[in-house]
Design brief:
By secondary structure, the chain is α+β, with helices and mostly antiparallel strands. It is about 40% helix and about 35% strand.
Length: about 70
Amino acid sequence: MVRLASQAEPTYQGRLVAARQSWVNWVDETGGRVGGCPQWLWVAESELVTVSSILPGRGRQQLKQLLGAD
């Protein structure tokens, strides 16, 4: 699994850059549990890309983590 993740990392980072440069992103977060701890699946979709991340909250800080401070 680690090998796959390391191979996919450049593609994921490229998609994050594309999403962060988009004028509009549609964003949704869905709650669940990972290992018994509450987590949220964040999804950002632009006209060109869709990116997601599992983060430990559903606030502004997590949105900034996914799409950047700007």
